[in-house]
Amino acid sequence: MPDTVYLTTPLYYVNAEPHLGHTYTTVVVDTLARYQRAMGRDVFFLTGTDEHGDKIAAAAEKNHASPHEYADRISAIFRSTWDTCGITYDHFIRTTDDYHVAFVREVLQRVYDAGDIYFGDYGGNYCTGCERFYADRELIDGKCPDHETEPVWIKEENYFFRMGKYQDRLRDHLEKHPDLIHPAGYRNEVLGLLREPLEDLCISRPKSRLTWGIEMPFDPNYVTYVWFDALLNYLSGIRHVDAARADQRWAHAQHFIAKDILKPHAVFWPTMLMAAGFPVYQRLNVHGYWNMGESKMSKSLGNVIRPLEMKERFGLDSFRYFLLREMAFGSDASFTEDAFITRFNADLSNGLGNLTSRVLSMQDKYFDGVVQAADGAPQDRALAAAFTQAESAMKSQMEGLAFHLALEEIWKAFNACDKYIVEEAPFKKWKDESAHPRVGAILATLCDALRDAARMIAPFMPETSERIAAMLGRPAGGDTAWDAALSLADAAPKWGEFYPPGHTVGKPEPLFPRLETT
Predict the structure, then answer these.
(1) How many domains does the chain have?
(2) Is 127 considered catalytic here?
(3) Which residue range forms the structural domain that includes residue 390?
(4) Which of 91, 147, 395, 404 is the catalytic position?
(5) Is 144 a catalytic site residue?
(6) CATH number, residue 39
(7) Looking at the domain assignment, is residue 182 inside a domain?
(8) Contact (Cβ atoms closer than 8 angstroms) between residue 402 and residue 285
(9) Structure confidence by residue, pLDDT tens digits, 46-65
(10) What is the pLDDT of residues 324-336, one digit of tens each?
(11) Which of 143, 259, 296, 404 is catalytic?
């Protein structure tokens, strides 16, 4: 993995407020950004909102607002939601930002001057929901495959990008870079698309039909097609923030998207980059859908899960945990409240929460919270080794974006703690006064285990990591020492040294009170 990492979410369309699909992608990228920072890498994390096009104009009219007023309101909701959820983005871009508009017009002019944009007429099946034309072969029973609605036949004069010109070059690039699209099944899907002739892309809309868009630099009677506008944010954002390092960051660009926007990102975008003279991104990472029962989560059906509501009801970290643990990246997953509560109780309440409570309760009960001396017994070293092994396995899974398996590896270490407590039985040993030093060593080992647990879960569950750290008490050196201890890049502080004898830990507080099904 390179030292520089550039991570992006898609720009979220402002025709509706944030829901589970937006949240999953954003949490995935935030988790990876936190992990990569903990690995000592230079991370830039971009997110934002896509604000032009037919759907925005229609939504604004429905809400009795101008498109700009409506976009301002919904974009602010996205940004405040991510801020409230503690998302660690480095820049939030809007496609209405002046610098982005200027960059889109610059690229359009460049591609037009190169002869790769031409004027012509076209008739086709237009889906307003997707804001694009569909070929007959792409429809399912005559309907849009995503929205399950019949498209409208539209015939009009427009500007077209010579996308077909770059078909062979794109296919060659995919074959030479087998890791370009992850997981591999989506790469195969794109290669399948490229076996058919790649039609040129309509990249304008006449102002007689739509005025809410970026005006074409070479014809004031047309605005830019929303995809040719929005995709360019991945370049305009980093060029705006730090132009001197933009090329270095772009060389390590990793996009994260849901599978419904695979074609624009895997076909439109790389051919646009080729035409404009930019290198293709490093990697496109594609995840599946969240379903409610048997149906895809959809704001039009009303079956949405909103992040702030979940945060209010259950706590943000438990929601993050469920999303990352339940979905295998690339595959579909189902969200039900029963499934959430089951995993919450099994993994969080009975697992990590109970472990933390048991250790700190015994430390408080037997030693008034004062950490005793470790004695380096073989079984203590074995527990430390289990955590080292879990961390190594977690890192391996993270490099492959297997977030669910990375968490599974961490939980193996927690299970090793539970086994260690059963086998060492400090609550039984305490009855023998001569065994008190050994009980102190056992609990010192377990305090180190909790400290290591907080370090490993920090990218996934940052608030819980902080709460465990607060209960354990800051080490000598305070916040600076703790922040350094969260690093995953270097060897962790040795067990028995981070919390020396005499350090006082706090009383336990419930991390995850058990939930009852209704």
Answers:
(1) 2
(2) yes
(3) 337-485
(4) 147
(5) yes
(6) 3.40.50.620
(7) yes
(8) no
(9) 999 999 998 999 999 999 99
(10) 999 999 999 999 8
(11) 296
